[in-house]
Target: pullulanase
Amino acid sequence: MKLASIKRFIALLSIFTLVIGGLFSFHSVQSFAETTSGKTKVTIHYKPAGGSTKDWNLWVFPEGGEGKAYPFTGEDKFGKVAEIELDGTYKKVGFIVRTDSWEKDGGDRFIDISAGEGEVWVKSGDDNTYTEPPDGEYRDLPAYENINVKVHYFRYDNQYEGWNLWTWPENGEGKAVQFTDEDEFGKVANIKMDNLKDVHKIGLIVRKSVPGNEWADKEFNDRYVTKFHEDGSAEVWIAQGQERIYYDKDLVDRTPKIVKASLDGFNEITFETNFPFDIKNHGLSLSGGAAIKEVVPYDSKAGDFTNKVKVITSKNLDLTKVYKISKENFGEAAVQTGKVVRTPEFDKQFFYNGKDLGNTYSKKETSFRLWAPTASEAKIVVYKSWQEEKGTELPLKKSERGTWKTTLNGNQEGLIYTYKVKIGDQWNEAVDPYARAVTVNGDKGAVINLDNTDPKHFHKRMKAFTPEDAIIYELHVRDLSMHPKSGIKHKGKFLGVAEEKTTGPAGVKTGLNHIKDLGVTHVQLLPIYDYNTVDETKLNEPQFNWGYDPKNYNAPEGSYSTDPYKPAVRIKEMKQMVNTLHHNKLRVIMDVVYNHMFAAGESNFQKLVPGYYFRYNEDGTLANGTGVGNDTASERKMMRKFIVDSVSYWAKEYNLDGFRFDLMGIHDVETMNQVRKALNTIDPSIIVLGEGWDLNTPIDPETKANQKNAGKMPGIAHFNDGIRDGLKGSVFNDIDKGFVNGKPGTEDAIKEGVKAGIDYPSTTATYKDPQQVITYVEAHDNHTLWDKLQLTNPESSVDTRKKMHKLASSIILTSQGISFLHAGQEFMRTKGGDPNSYRSPDSVNQLDWQRRADFSKEVDYMKGLIKLRKSHPAFRMRTAQDIRSHLTFLPAPKNTVIYDLKGHANKDRAKDLVVVYNANETVQTISLPTVGPWKVLANGEKAGNKSLGTLLGKKIKVPALSAVVLEGK
Model:
């Protein structure tokens, strides 16, 4: 399974900290660090699989913060090594071994930082995270014969009586060591060990002894000192309530403080300190007109002393007010809005189902409505130009269900604006999430008269379309036109996609002219909403990105327009592109990425309603099923509403014909069903498809919008990675092979894929009918099929690889379900071996029109397959029952699949189609159901809806690496 494209940019590291006595705007991801000063160092050893050529790196996310990519910086006898230093000190650091395209080796892994530095070992194909080299493999650490460690110990309560150390050499016996000295830090103990053998570290436990019980109490479990001088000496500092061992005393924070105070229920505050305290004599007080009813341990197993409690208030608190909580010796902290915004009660109280969020324009007036229920004040900020730094602030009036509104009289077309909200004592400014027009780089919203952006006759929809009839062509706007010989003037632009009758080398059709000639039905465009990673003020510089890094969901991307400085231009030109495609009988699918944003902290969602729109783990850290640091929370009513509203807006305003949901498995079933329902009211033939991968995000597995739950989402299609990997080999292993490139025993995988996966086990997928299945072999992610074949079959000739390639495409276009082609697949597109070209230059990504001219025979073959599919409804059956009744697999030699489509009830009643896939590199003799006569419609070299010749007899010879399609009566 592939974590599609976002995957594709390096997010900024955002470490969130709690400012005592002040307010923290991003409440829910705060301060699980012990202290925000200092550094945290981790060392990660990784052993790749033998023969792997992938460019592995690390995605590291400190607890409570967002992730960032780090390279491996060296090698040792175990494998690759990365030494990483993070700002701040953390108890836990997470990491993922991955490539830039988010191919992951294992899942999320974590390093516990108990000894000041964390060091772990991981192996390819092994999900374990080891604190020692696995399988007894060599670790290059010095061993010591004599060890002398000075341990400094601080207790903020100044109660040292009975406290001592239990210490032991690696794999040796333990002994008690007393604190015998004292300095300005606290008590001091000296650990001496002599005549040691193969000792690399020593362990220690801080414990309390009383008469008759040496283990009356202890702080934490085993901790280790691992850093020594050459002579085996070391000096370390430890503090009460802090698990970490410090090698620098200046990093130790000995000041008792409040670490966390968050409102997690309407009458429940989670309160945490850096040191434990007595619950019975808690000494807590709450200001702001609220009273404390009781204080209970956060963990029911905690004793009388703990550093984390639940504070229950006597009445529900007002989320827009500032409350402060204080404790003697620990200071005072503002109570942040925490988990309360993620409770069902919050949704029930503040869900707003109106149609007027964002701005509503008319020539007489424009109204604005913002949803920000945790804000105590809200304003609209009006700017004279996109570059103005300080605008005019106008108040918004508090309205129903957490909304704020105002109306500006007169014609406000072109008005540039943002919103500001006061969360606690801090003001946050953000672009309107519902903004339909934006300034350059999407930094401000704009009011737009959408009627002035429509091409002539634009809002007349194309005729209804049956999903199984679709042949989807996946395309990046820029790729189509950038080649020097494309013949297209508006290179890299929406208008470049709309140019008609263009030609290239040897007079071949290019651009739209080529796509129309190919015969596909739908063009699926990689993200065309406003995304983050291309600087629209520097379009004269080479820039490329796939666009899976959302910034403003409801406005088009400015870099694809001829003038990103004028908000209306990008809208007009995108509509012109859609309109032209429609006039050429091509429908348009939009790739949408509602599953995450570029960075949670930078997003307009988080600035306006902190903690609500994103999904969090139980410990308060951002969920990371997407692998890029954040998952949106589609199950929350206002996030769900936003997704449904956004898709509906694009469908209506831009006349779109489909939506491809990136990482759809992050979303929930109910949201996707509401999307389907909303689009049905516009046009039931609008296609909804997505990546139904089962991703590690914290919602009920039964509610995830993935392949396993496909049966709960009628009318929504999923990419079938089963047939994809069955055909060419796993996308996660460069040299793994599949059916077409020589892997034996893959026939069953192909058969199941040909049937559109309707008989997969429920643990794989629960497709109920063929319109729920996208049948494909390559997409923008991973290697192109051609590049994959070069990796798996480097010894094969170019001609052999061409045959393999054509066989794979033949299977896609003669299988049940919705056919899907990657742009350039028809001329065996190569990216020069680049498996992840999300930000590679045009020389890698552009459609090579010279190659199209050179591969004209292969293009003609693909055109013939498309004609064949369109001519025979038997390849496009509507129900699972039709497939089971009319498709029969016949006995076949090894590495060969044969099936019979006989008597199909939909227009092909009299037809008998036999399809043969021969993946052997030798001719195969196969038996036919009858003697014929049989018309040949495809023979591995040519294909189409007209006969290539007639065969008579029950046996035929099928060429090596080819697909043969026969039509009988």
